[in-house]
Design a protein that fits this description.
Layout lengths: L2 H24 L10 H6 L1 H12 L6 E5 L2 E5 L8 E8 L8 E4 L7 E5 L6 E11 L2 E11 L2
Antiparallel strand pairs: 1-2, 2-5, 3-4, 3-6, 6-7
Length: 145
């Protein structure tokens, strides 16, 4: 076999390898942190203000797990007129994120069933408003179903 034939075979194997790699990489799932990360970045100063408001509170939201439920206990002075949402952010896959509206009982408690959540780590993001003031809190929670 001549050197020209060996060179042609080597170049062909290289090109086939590159094309195989490109074909494989186009079938892979790409997860961004968030689908709308740019608009969220623009609004980040509002988020900083909400974080600072939450830090100024005398009491904070307590998050606990009991009997397959997550419990959110809001401060005593925030049992009514609270609106907002709780986001379960899963760093491993944004398609597993879940949002739910805040709906407190008369004791300032909200219970959420964890049946639709996967076992593992979530970042619980609580974004709420009380008396026209916005608040925000994040806490890592590990669900051990």
């Amino acid at each position: 076999m001549s050197w020209g034939t060996k060179l042609a075979i080597g170049a062909s194997i290289y090109v086939i390898g590159i094309l195989t790699f490109v074909a494989f990489s186009t079938t892979q799932k790409i997860n961004l942190v968030s689908k709308d990360y740019y608009p969220k970045e623009v609004e980040y100063q509002q988020q900083i203000d909400k974080l600072n408001n939450a830090k100024k509170l005398n009491e904070t939201i307590l998050i606990s797990q009991e009997n397959g439920k997550l419990q959110f206990q809001f401060p005593a002075n925030m049992h009514d007129l609270v609106k907002g949402e709780i986001i379960f952010y899963r760093p491993a896959d944004y398609e597993s994120d879940i949002k739910t509206a805040i709906d407190l009982d008369e004791n300032g408690l909200q219970e959420l069933n964890t049946d639709q959540l996967l076992k593992g780590m979530y970042t619980v993001k609580i974004d709420w408003e009380h008396d026209g003031i916005g608040y925000y809190k994040e806490e890592a929670v590990y669900l051990n179903k």
